[in-house]
Amino acid sequence: MVGVEGGPNLSKKFEKMAQTSKPKLPSERKKPGPKPWATEPQECRLMEGVPGYRQAQAKKPKRNAISKFLDDFMPTWWAEFPLREGVTAAADRASANGSRITVPQKKIAGGVSVRDIFPRNSRALKAEELYSRKYYQTRVKPLVEDKKEEGSTQGQILNLVKAMTKEVFAQESEEIREEILIELKNQLPIKPTVGEEMTPEMFAAALKSAPG
């Protein structure tokens, strides 16, 4: 895993898990192989989303349905597995040591070129998505927990997260909204050019816009 909580491509991960009748956690796998980018808690979270992914696969147009599923899923993913503190600093240290991750010379875990994980229609994060990544745990999650009803389905929870994030962001102070809007305007491009360094922020944006 290269400096981002969540790995290179959740869409492909879901597709692989959906093809298995009963996906296994890392601790249940017997055959040796490459270390998976997802931790066991992340694998559990992904397994919870597999039924919804399968439903999206069955809809038409399939690409749009899967894209909608990921739009709903990603806010809760970032809320549970945010980018770790110090990731960017670690990347900077690696760069200083001559270990820059470039495109397409270096490969990510599993032998996939970094360039390959980016869809042609990659887009930047929206304001509410940037806000969620920074403030979900402290400002949105408590409200979600209060409003979440016992026995809520995964889809209901995802819809609640999206609705509460939008509502809280709309009511934020002018200072916070200005902070997010500045980040929105200045956020880094999410598709690197040949020889350009890959950053955690680029990975995050690519995950959000990953196609089916």
Characteristics:
2 domains; mainly alpha; single chain; about 210 residues
Written account of the structure:
It contains eight helices and no strands. The chain is mostly helical. The protein folds into two domains: 1-124 and 189-212, no CATH class; 126-186. Helix 3 crosses helix 6. The radius of gyration is 18 Å and the shape is globular. Residues 1-41 are annotated as: Disordered.
Summarize, please:
With 212 residues, the chain is mainly α. The protein is 55% helix and 0% strand. Helix 3 (62-80) packs across helix 5 (127-147) and helix 3 (62-80) crosses helix 6 (154-170).
**How many runs of DSSP E, i.e. beta strands?**
0
* Percentage of residues in helical conformation: 55-70%
Overall average pLDDT: 68
Strand content: under 5%
SSE blueprint and pairings:
Layout lengths: L9 H9 L21 H19 L3 H19 L6 H10 L30 H21 L6 H17 L3 H13 L13 H9 L4
Helix pairs in contact: 1-2, 2-3, 3-5, 3-6, 5-6, 5-7
